[in-house]
Amino acid sequence: MDILIGITTKDSVLIATSKSVARGVSVIKTNDDKTRELTDHSLLAFSGESGDTTNFAEYIQANIRLYGTRNGFEMSNKAIASFTRNELASALRSRKPYQVNILIGGYDVKKKKATLNWIDYLAANVELPYAAHGYAQYYVLSLLDRHHDPNMTQEQGLELLKDCIKELRLRMPIDFKGVQVKVVDEAGVRKLPEDF
Amino acid sequence: MAGKDCIAIACDLRLGMQSVGVSSNFEKIFEYDSVYLGLTGLATDVITLSEEFRMKHNMYKMREERRMEPDTFANLVSSSLYEKRFGPYFVGPIVAGLNSKTGKPFICGFDLIGAIDFAKDFIVAGTATDQLYGMCESLWEPDLEPEDLFETISQALLNAQDRDALSGWGAVVYIITKDKVVKRLLKTRQD
Amino acid sequence: MYILDDHIVCAVAGIDSDASILVNRARVFAQSYLKTYSEEIPCEILVKRLCDIKQGYTQYGGLRPFGVSFVFAGYDDLHGFQLYTSNPSGNYSGWKATSVGANGASAQTLLKQEYKEDFSLDQACELAMKVLSKTMDSATLTSEKLEFSTVGKDSASGKVYQKIWKPADIDALLKATGLGKAEEDD
Fold first, then answer.
1. Is residue B148 part of a domain?
2. Any residues with CB less than 8 A from the CB of A124 and at least 6 apart, and which?
3. Any A CB within 8 A of B190 CB
4. Which among A59, B72, C123, C139 has most CB atoms closer than 10 A?
5. What is the rounded CA–CA span in Å between residue C71 and residue C85?
6. CA distance C36 to chain A (A)
7. B87 touching A, CB under 8 A?
8. Does this model's pTM top 0.90?
9. How many other CB atoms sit within 10 Å of the CB of residue A69?
10. B1 within domain boundaries
11. Any chain A CB within 8 A of the CB of C37?
């Protein structure tokens, strides 16, 4: 089961995704990137049925980029989350629904505010200070409940994230080959070089 | 809940996936000018329907150049839900409002395919319906004034949700009178 | 005068029945945008969309174009208060003050002379009324002969409001600006 974790801090969002891809009993990839950049200041992370996931993520990415070029300005993070939810919701009652869980991390340069949206495969969309998908939820949500502070700095956020990963390494029954961490802040989206 | 020339509508704030709590700030009451809609059930359908009704309500307002009355809105909810008779939205809606002409309180509830349940006293919906019926049945009395109605609905909701594992995590109460709407956030236990 | 959304109004010059089709299309589009994105539609996107529809009818044979010119007034976070006009060919343009319809050109000249960028809403209303009084064919202005609407922002709450004026409000403005009766003095 894939891991998605998102944490907002005072001035950024941190998104961690597991690096493994498994087919049946075999691990077939150990450096997978389960994220797509939607705009300069928003990042989408996804997990779920393989095939559905990248297809849906890239479909959303293409539509949001198209909006940007057509209208000459980028969509807000609220609009991005709402659009994504609507696509997922209309697919839900179609012949073949997408089975994709999503986190969208974004930074609003004008309002100087970081946001995190949690969307599950049923297309329920909520904005949260911190969130996770999959089995990881059961381990990290209680940790985050205890230690998260909306005014924490990016460094404190990363420390908290490290603690979450430590817990996961200890408790998850299957090796998820570590996580990749991306940060969204005023400067844009960037991947952290450290090995988590 | 209906009172004397006033109504009250209230909801908890929890959004969860079975036993896992996801959000403690998920409001289930939506405002369409002077009509109030409470939506419980599957979160995705709560969002979809609240947006759908916002769209239909706005179009009505612009085309008719007048506001929609609560009973009109109730019929809109009913027919919209029945449209999906064989693939329904999994929700339990309630509608509350004051008629703008007569000033009379209007409250009603629905099942998931749009059958309307009109009531003169109170309507409940969601996972804690059994508890809510018990509370409302014993606390509610006719012709309550706004402040007394607030106390009644708050106690009914709070004590019912404390006996339901899937409800809670905060609560919101609206008290609606002819010329004023008061929205209050209630502090509740967070477990 | 039609409300297109909570933050946009438009005025119509031309064939009314054509206009009502486009107005309906605009309202549906504004609402579906709100539903998809949970945000009010930026004014220019709505204007552009309507003009795309209008343009379509100039390119294909067998149908006549929409005989309507619009003036749109709206507000959004992107560009603040905005004013647009569009014509039957599907061209649109943004303005600080503008006019369309009969005697539109002379109204434009008057606006060019008297418009100032730092107008308050009251001053803008007064100028609009003045220009109307000079360019309309009828001798005296009354609330029965004109429609009036404004888009503003509440300074306290920051909420955008749009208002299509009631006849009594228009008469009050006519009285205040002295234009209702001033015509007789001329």
1. yes
2. A85, B15, B22, B42, B43, B44, B47
3. no
4. B72
5. 4
6. 5
7. yes
8. yes
9. 8
10. no
11. yes
